[in-house]
Amino acid sequence: MDFDEFREFGHASIEFIINYLSSIRDRNVLPSVVPYEVFNQLPKEIPEKPEHWREVLKDLDQIILPGLTHWQSPYFNAFYPSSSSAGSIIGELLIAGIGVLGFSWICSPACTELEVVVMDWLAKFLKLPEHFQHASEGPGGGVIQGSASEAVLVAVLAAREQAVVSYKESHPELSESEIRGRLVAYSSDQSNSCIEKAGVLAAMPIRLLAAGEDFVLRGETLKAAIEEDVAAGRIPVICIATLGTTGTCAYDDIESLSAVCEKHKVWLHVDAAYAGGGFALEEYSELRKGLDRVDSLNFNLHKFMLVNFDCSAMWLRDANKVVDSFNVDRIYLKHKHEGQSQIPDFRHWQIPLGRRFRALKVWITFRTLGAEGLRNHVRKHIELAKQFEDLVVKDSRFEIVAPRALGLVCFRPKGDNEITSQLLHRIMERKKIYMVKAEHAGRQFLRFVVCGMDTKPEDIEFAWAEIESQLTGLLEEQALASRKAGNVADLTQHFQIHLTTDNVEKSQ
Amino acid sequence: MDFDEFREFGHASIEFIINYLSSIRDRNVLPSVVPYEVFNQLPKEIPEKPEHWREVLKDLDQIILPGLTHWQSPYFNAFYPSSSSAGSIIGELLIAGIGVLGFSWICSPACTELEVVVMDWLAKFLKLPEHFQHASEGPGGGVIQGSASEAVLVAVLAAREQAVVSYKESHPELSESEIRGRLVAYSSDQSNSCIEKAGVLAAMPIRLLAAGEDFVLRGETLKAAIEEDVAAGRIPVICIATLGTTGTCAYDDIESLSAVCEKHKVWLHVDAAYAGGGFALEEYSELRKGLDRVDSLNFNLHKFMLVNFDCSAMWLRDANKVVDSFNVDRIYLKHKHEGQSQIPDFRHWQIPLGRRFRALKVWITFRTLGAEGLRNHVRKHIELAKQFEDLVVKDSRFEIVAPRALGLVCFRPKGDNEITSQLLHRIMERKKIYMVKAEHAGRQFLRFVVCGMDTKPEDIEFAWAEIESQLTGLLEEQALASRKAGNVADLTQHFQIHLTTDNVEKSQ
């Protein structure tokens, strides 16, 4: 490695990032490319000889950037945010530069221990029950997973294995495969697609129970489903509740769900991928109700904590339940400090063996922003969403579909699904802002999420101007079309009369 | 984001990396810390106010670095390498700076298309069968997974779901859970722990068949196991073969295994996490024998292609088999260009929903090194391992345990397992180099792997000097202990005679 060249390339790349991020509002958030347009501009083989990095940066600028959807743009209002910050970007540079892996303690002790530190920091910051901290007396603790999907899958698989073991003990007459064939899990029909996928991957059906009209899953619904399953000889394993559903950011009722889960010895996991950001705020303390009774929990740092993807925090009330389910060791992985009671070997807390030093970017981000900076960031997104909500409410052509929650506003133009679809289609074709739609009980609506780096009130105004002007345009077009249709109808009638007259004349 | 501060922090971090990597030989490869030593040096809460990044870099230098195991050190000879390069480190910086996610095409078209490009590049570079390329006629293609564990799990889960569907069609009288209860998979007892773990996660037993004395799994062993299982009413699903086992870098016999798999309609996956690097070399063309008959394949770019972790390439002969098994879509994920035949939505090719823009670091690394640079890197590791092997062979106190393969030499001091353990213990206590041991048929041995950034012949000499001098020290200590034991024995005998005489005298 030529360090002088590395320095030059590094500095140029930092300027590249500064140029990109500081001018991100000048680009359409959605790219103007058709499938294979980027592909077709690139050569079909690795160059035989090395190319200069300047060539690569040039192509990155001229071929790749024009083909990207700009997630850090304030005009990206589609999915929940994938946030970022200076500390986190530099954190990734340092993670790569240091280049260690941390699947066991000996593999890089500081890598494991810094993760223990930042997960306890975060548990305190989010005011989670104390038993989730590594430093607490019990077997609880936190771990960084790659994504919410992985956290959910870890909970689902561990709960499945625990259920098989405990049911086997109480029902020795059943074979393991008979037990596995009876397992069943639960979630709401508002939960993220990754939960249904976890059921497919775990080969365990996950019943997607109907949420209430307010999009909330409650204990009574779960109770009825569990009782029905138990009566039919099935074995309830886990319920995956959501705080902040993808569609409308609804909050499942953790307290009533936990009571049902406790009674039936069902694992309760909470997917708070997005709404977990609210835990940190005094004014959102309601959100934390019932968390002392859940078995596991996940929250995406890339959504609200300014740590870039991938970084999904997961806490377990009893980590041994996962470790016991997943531990398959080999001699080459053993070391003398093993034993989860002493220090965790995080490879047993996750799906893969290898793991990056993600704790480093968390540590850098948290220290350079401070608890104050993190809370301010969440509050800023809430304020901007309120600003957007006010704009919607003031325009009588629109309606709010679900209560604004954190940084999400769900709304639609009054009328049928067709007008919602058409409006979104127009907006997507123009590529100025990016939203996606969702659906509940047959009713489609638009989701406006505050995202992007350093989003400002004027960005919200820009987005709203785009939305309302496009509705105006759409309504005008429709009116024009309708007038034309009316004229055509008039004309047709005229011709019909004429023809009829003509026919009459001819027949005369 | 304050861009001036970002620039300053970025430049300082680049210097930090240069300092760390350029002086990495000055550090012991293993740290001198006990559990919780790093943890205890760090505060217990997020600071309320932001701290300056200089403070963070200072602590990184003074608290974190001394607690790390240095994977990029040439004296790290433990696991297979986790390689890195200037292009790849800067690649991570740019990935984080641009900050896009790529779970579907519309999410960031260039992110998906660049992955298609680099996976086809790599398939050609490694001389894989053409049907693994996206650009080929059929349904094949490559995808970047996070790790070999995830690639193996994807193959295992997809094979499982395909088997259930096809067995259900041919045996409609069986329930789905009856079918699932009969599924069985195969691998060698030399395969990586992640394969056994995949069996646990998939709730499908994976039989670890005994490899031959040469550590190789062959078709005849698989055939016997499958026939036994079929006779017992079980359903064979998948065989996970290994090219380059973790213990000794043995190569399973893909040709004979594929013949058996084809006959029994069993999915054949090849885990070439390490040895895949050899595919690129003309002189290793033997390694590629039979690959035209496998269903899927994985190769870790962080092992031999100088792209840092995480980056595990996976190819599928028929990607639809994975997509059909994993697809659980929601309205908010749909877009108008969907359809795998046109362009892949890679979220259906993997476990999680979210995915980083890893193709970017692959692209930068490949272009800045060229195909030539990549091949030279693999050849350099092979040369250095040969150098080490020669040193072992010349010292009659040692023996080679398995044929040297690529960058791995398996050896041990002559004698029993105890002396191997003691030698490793001494070496680990000194922390100058880091090796791990493995075991086959009750026989323990040491693995010396060429790893690290920019490893040179003198680094191999350094490692060998450490190993052979520690054996010398150990043997001297044993000889001394044995002489002392001899003296003690003499002395005891003397006293016994004396005592006896004494007793005799007393009894007189």
Automatic annotation (TrEMBL), chains A, B:
This protein's GO cellular component annotations are: cytoplasm
Q: Which Pfam families match?
A: Pyridoxal_deC
Presence of keyword Transferase: no
- Superkingdom classification of source: Eukaryota
A GO MF annotation of the entry reads: aromatic-L-amino-acid decarboxylase activity
Q: Which residues carry this modification: N6-(pyridoxal phosphate)lysine?
A: K303
Keyword check for Lyase: yes
Give the GO biological process terms: amino acid metabolic process; carboxylic acid metabolic process; catecholamine metabolic process
Gene3D superfamilies listed in its UniProt record: Aspartate Aminotransferase, domain 1 (3.90.1150.10), dopa decarboxylase, N-terminal domain (1.20.1340.10), Type I PLP-dependent aspartate aminotransferase-like (Major domain) (3.40.640.10)
**EC class of the enzyme, as a word:** lyase
Q: What is its EC number?
A: 4.1.1.-
Provide this UniProt record's keywords sorted from A to Z.
Lyase, Pyridoxal phosphate
Q: Which residues form the signal peptide?
A: none
**Family per record:** Belongs to the group II decarboxylase family.
What is the protein name stated in its UniProt record?
Answer: Uncharacterized protein, isoform B
**What gene is this protein translated from?**
Dana\GF14702
